[in-house]
Structure formats: structure tokens, C-alpha cells
Design goal:
The protein is α/β, with parallel strands linked by helices. The chain is built from 14 helices and 25 strands. The strands form 6 sheets. The chain has a 7-stranded mixed β-sheet with strand order 10-23-24-25-21-22-11. Strands 19-16-17-18-12-15-20 form a 7-stranded mixed β-sheet, with no helix packed on it. Strand 23 and strand 24 form a beta hairpin. The longest helix has 16 residues.
Length: 541
Amino acid sequence: MSENGNFIEQIVESDLAESKIGAVKTRFPPEPNGYLHVGHAKSMFVNFGTAQKFGGTCNLFFDDTNPSKEKTEFVEAIKQDIRWLGYAWEKEVYASDFFEVIYDYAERLILAGKAFVCDLSAEEIKNTRGTLTEPGQESPYRTRPVEENIKLFREMRAGKYADGEKCLRAKIDMSSPNMNMRDPVIYRILRAEHHRTGDKWCIYPMYDYAHPICDYLQGVTHSLCTLEFEDHRPLYDWVGLTLGFAPKPRQIEFARLNLTNLVMSKRYLKKLVEEGTVHGWDDPRMPTLAGLRNRGIPAAAVRDFCARIGVVKANSECEISYFEAVVREYLNAHAPRAMAVLEPLKLTITNYEGSEETDFEINQLEENAGTRKIAFSDTLYIEKSDFSLDPPPKYHRLKIGGYARLKNAYIVRCDEAVTDGNGEVTEIKCTYFPESKSGADTSGIKAKGVLHWVDAKTCVDAVVKQYDHLLRDADYAGQDFSERINTESEHVFFAKAEPYLVSAEEGTAFQLMRTGYYKTCRENDKLCLSEIVSLKDNFNK
């Protein structure tokens, strides 16, 4: 066996070597009850990636056994997310495709004396299940004759009984140390409109029962699940062995992806949307894949992140700063550079006349990226924070009498500051040095600071949006999500940007010099620059 690869790949490699399977077949099994989040990206990476590595195939399998929460909207969103991440499924399959077969298998269990119709309520079943140290109590209906169970089960399907009035339970072992094996419910009565089958069914199989059957019917060889399903594996195996599946799919569990400062629960994400805390499922602050896509995070960076964190058995929590570092690293290598000023301060060059175009490096890290032209004149905008009337020690930006280089242009010296009635600086006046042009500097002037800027005569107005995490620091981990929500996580600036950004294709990611990584978009027909990730790397390498 190869020493390379994660533990799942080693198991698959062994199964192939021992001829336990032919071709590898996996499935990615989302429930269409919400939008996928970044945690699902890891499951995609494992399921699609494992199949791809061994020349196999992966189905997209929708677990649509709970119609009260599932929608076609979510189905379409999930398919869009998978395509965005760059994965392709062999077949699109639904649990509802197999409802008739799943029902027939239930009758087979009843006829074999392995399932019975129970009249206990959900609360009564819960109260008689026992504890981790005490066995459960058998249902008084456990010994019903097979003929009566078949009759009642068929009447359940026909709609004779009310929701919750009866259920079908597997007959396993009420003293099992595994709570999932204590006569679990495998069918319940539920009158709800199904997004595909309408009102054809009023009984629906439970996930733990339908899961192994659907895997078998698809020809799945390895059912790859997150770690919370480890305790469910004995039931998965019981269903397969009892129904005589050959070959029986093999369930393998791996640790799910947990990130600090992110809401990773569909229930809470839905609450954020419904309560208006965010603008929708694709809000750039949301950890949904739609949100990441809308934020401008490249799909390749998400795949790279999943590959780096690896596939392991033990649960852990990954710092959000590491995810951001991976995204930043990708964008640093691929994003073109541009300039925008978030808090504009007018800079007038008193000894400059006319205008010109200067060369600007598109991306110094990309070979053959080249340069483009940017306008330069006697009136510019710089960041308000790049000038100080009362600078601290070792201040390398502009101050009265101080020098700084304008990025890809000239060195300037600040001579005067103009203030308003409140003492606020509204303009600074500078002298430029013609011989100091970038790439051909013969001035001999040492200017430690390099400032970004935009030309005031050609720049455009832009809305700039910056984001904080939706959840406050992980120090609050003991609190409920709702107590940790950062209600001031979106910040809006009215900025000045170079006109090049207006002509860029919508959704293009740029590094705004000294500011961060942003994507271009349009908002009310105006340029909007939406933050992808900051320049600052907080990850402790």
C-alpha cells in the first residue's frame, strides 16, 4: 500500500488491491434544505476528489426525505455551488427516485420479523429509549404479528392515520450500548408537499434507513460521511446486511470542517436571513458557498484550502485567519493591482503643469503581466491617513517638510496644509521633483514612504464595502450564536478610484494598493468595490 494519501485513500487503495471492489463509486449527499456552506466544500473535496484520484465516479445525491424543509430553490443553488467549485457529477440522483423500492424493502423487513408498527408517540419513544447506562424498554407493540404489521403499514401509506399516530420501527436490540440500535424509527407519517413527488406520499423513510439503501441502489462502494455519523454506522451496516446487499457499501467517516468566527449551522444561517441580519443567503459575510462566491473568493483558493487542511479522523477547529491567508496567497499571485482612495484628501502639486500617463505594474509577481497607463496631473487624491500635522516618531508618510513617493510616479515634498474652520485638513500643497520619476530616479532624494493615489481629474466615485466577521472573537465560544452576532460587520465608504476599475469585467478581483483585495461590481449603476480579504495577514504561521 502506498504511504501517500489520506486514511480514506489508503482504505480505498487496499479495497482495490484486494479486489473487494471494481471501480470506485462515491456520492456527495446534501439535503436540499438550505444553501451549502464552506464546510460542505470539504465534503465535496473528499467525495469528488477520492473518486477522481482512483478513476471512479461520484454522483450528486439529494437526500430529500424530509419534505417539510426542502425546496427546488435549494436544489438549484446546490448544483450551482458544485459547478462553481469545479466538480462534475456522473448522475443526479434523489432519494425520492427510490421511494417505492425503499417502501418495498420496509415490507420485506416486516415479513422477516425485523420491523413492526408502533403506536407510541415520539415523546413516548424518547422516554423509553433508556440511557447510556440503562437499557431501553421494549414497545408494547413490538410483538405484533407480521400480518397485522403489514396491514397497518399499508394503511399508513394509504393515509388512514394522522401524523405521528403510528410509525414503523426496526426490531433490533433495546439493550444495545449504541442508542441508534434501540429499535429506531424507520418510517414516519408526514403530510407535507414534496418538492418532486407532491402529495403522492404521506409516509417518508428516515435518513438512517434510506441512506444505506440509496447507496446500494446507486452502486456506491464507499459512503464517505462526516464524523457525527460514526455512531450511526452499525445501523447502516444492519440495514445492508439484513436486506442482503452484496456487495454492501462501506461507510467511512472523516472530521468535518469547523472554522472559528463562522456560523456553520443551516438553522442559524436561515435565522440570519429571515431576521434580516444579512442581505440574503449570498451576503458576502455569509459562510455559504454563494456568499463566498459573491464576496469574490476564488474557487481555486477554496479547493487549495481543503487540500491543505487534509482529511483526518479527529474533529478540530481551524482558524478563520488560516482560510483568509490561503485566499490572500492566491490573490496575491493572480490579482491585478489598482488604486483607490477610501478617505480622499486633495493633494495639489504647485510646480507641475499639464498631465501625463505613467506606467503602472499590473502584478509584479506574475511573469509577463506587464504594465498599463494611469493618468497623472497636478491634482491628486491620497488617503487622509497618509498625512499628519502632528506625526509620531518614525512617521514615513507626508508631513510638513516631509517627503514621500507617489506609487509609480514622483517624489513629492509637502509644503503647506490647508484647514477648514474646524481645523480639519482639506488640502495639502506639495512640490514634485521631475528627476525622481519611478524607474528613472536620479534625484538622490531618499523617501521611505510610498503612497497610493488617484488622479483627481480623471478618477471616478466608488462605493467601497468592508466586512468584519459575523461572529465575534472565538473568546465568546461559550455563548449562543445569537449572542455573538456582530451587528456592525459591514462598513461603507465613499471613495475615489481610478477609472480603469469601471471598465473591468464585473466580479474581477483586484489588489487595491495598500488597502486590500476587492472585487468590482455595480450597485445602482455605480462602481462598487467589495472587500474579499484584507492585506493584513493575521495567521500565526
